[in-house]
Each structure stands twice: as C-alpha cells, then as structure tokens.
Design the sequence.
C-alpha cells in the first residue's frame, strides 16, 4: 500500500511540474503584443488597496478606453470604504468624459462592478492567524473571478444598483500594483488555470505594476509575483536590474 502511494506520487510529480510550467510565462520572455485582435472587447479586473495603492492605480487608469475595456471589475478588501468610493467616483469621471467627448456617439461606456473580499492580513494581525484569513480571502477570490461574488454595486450606463449578477466569463486581464489582495487573487487565478477549469484557457492574463515609490528594491508583493505574472512593469529604470530580465520600463506611469 505504502509503495503504491510513493509510486503514484513519483509519477505525478513530472506531470504536475509540466502542467505548472505550461501556465507560467517563460522566464526572461515577455508575451507577444498584438495577440488580441484590434477592437476586441475586454473584461478588466482591477485590485485596489487602501490609500496609496488605490490612488496610484486610478492614476494609472486615467486614460482608460471604455470602448475597449467594456466591463471593469474592482476588487477591494473588507472595511475599505475609501477604495469603494474612489472607484465609484472614478467611474463617474469616465462616464462624464465620454458624455462630453466629441466622439461620444461612437464610444460606449460599458459597465462596472465593485466586489469586496476579506482582508488577507490586517495591520498588526498575528502571524499565527494570517494563514486562516488568507485562505478565507483565497476562497472569496475564486468567487470574484467566477463572477459569483456579491457586488457592492454594478453600473451600466447611468443606472446603478446592488447586484448578484454574474459575469458571463472570467476576466481577460487582472491588473495589480501591490496590495496583498492582489497577490491572493493572482494566486487564485493560477490555481484555476492549473486545474484547467472550463472557460479559463487564454483568460486571466496578469499584469503587475510596481509602485512608483519603489526605486531600488521590489516590494514583498513584487518579489512573490515576479515570476508568476505575465507582465511585470516598473516605473524606474534602475529597477530593471532587480527583475531578473522580467521587468518592463516605460517611464513613470502615475
């Protein structure tokens, strides 16, 4: 019996390793651009974090093309009313920008929703209890990715309401800039892709943008996600030397 279990484990290790390698980006190889046809409607999932992370993320998105990113999903941690309010105000700004645009007849606002997940770790939380809270956050992130989480708000056009309406597909792109929730939701997306869950193939591509405040070293989130995300973007040229060839630099983005 014990030898059978050992043999099974030995046989599974190469299979699981190959499966893991198949979903992770090749080290030192950036994804090809232009793989999505021009004009393709895209579902974007954005992770917001308390205070600075949220302000920086929304600055990154200030020129977002709503006609391309037709549905925006914002994920916030519990008790983060600040980020919820900022997301809603940001969407109001996008709607007003389209309304007053000279090309407004050719532009679509689309829709958005805000989902709340438990905090992976609270400030001053004991390290002993952190694994449990992180697991609670992980399971909630599965629901968010599948579109079955209870949303704070969902808006289409000028109408907003509380909703449990699921999305029709997993997000095309996941965008994070450092909050712990971003690490958990990206890990959740990798697990779903690793398990070959239906309708996840080619979905949930991940982009990580390191904080503008990081000039010489990566944040903890950056260190964890460096080899797990599809694209890793830094905002200082000096940071390229600490990304093992994975980083991309386009100047300050905020």
Sequence:
């Amino acid at each position: 019996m014990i030898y059978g279990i050992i043999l099974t484990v030995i046989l599974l290790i190469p299979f699981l390793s190959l499966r893991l390698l198949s979903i992770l980006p090749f080290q030192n190889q950036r994804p090809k651009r232009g793989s999505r046809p021009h004009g393709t409607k895209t579902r974007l999932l954005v992770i917001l974090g308390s205070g600075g992370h949220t302000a920086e993320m929304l600055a990154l998105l200030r020129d977002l093309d709503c006609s391309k990113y037709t549905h925006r999903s914002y994920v916030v941690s519990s008790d983060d009313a600040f980020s919820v309010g900022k997301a809603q105000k940001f969407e109001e700004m996008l709607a007003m920008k389209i309304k007053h645009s000279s090309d407004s007849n050719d532009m679509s606002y689309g829709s958005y929703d805000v989902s709340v997940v438990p905090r992976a770790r609270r400030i001053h939380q004991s390290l002993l209890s952190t694994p449990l809270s992180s697991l609670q956050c992980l399971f909630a992130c599965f629901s968010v990715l599948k579109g079955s989480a209870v949303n704070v708000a969902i808006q289409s056009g000028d109408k907003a309401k509380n909703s449990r309406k699921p999305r029709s597909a997993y997000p095309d792109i996941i965008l994070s800039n450092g909050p712990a929730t971003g690490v958990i939701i990206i890990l959740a997306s990798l697990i779903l892709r690793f398990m070959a869950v239906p309708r996840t193939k080619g979905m949930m591509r991940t982009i990580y943008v390191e904080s503008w405040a990081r000039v010489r070293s990566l944040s903890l989130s950056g260190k964890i996600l460096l080899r797990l995300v599809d694209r890793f973007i830094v905002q200082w040229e000096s940071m390229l030397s600490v990304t093992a060839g994975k980083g991309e630099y386009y100047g300050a983005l905020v």
User: Anything to note?
Assistant: The first strand starts at residue 43 and ends at 47. The chain has six helices and nine strands. The helical segments are 2-23, 52-60, 81-99, 130-146, 180-194, 220-225.
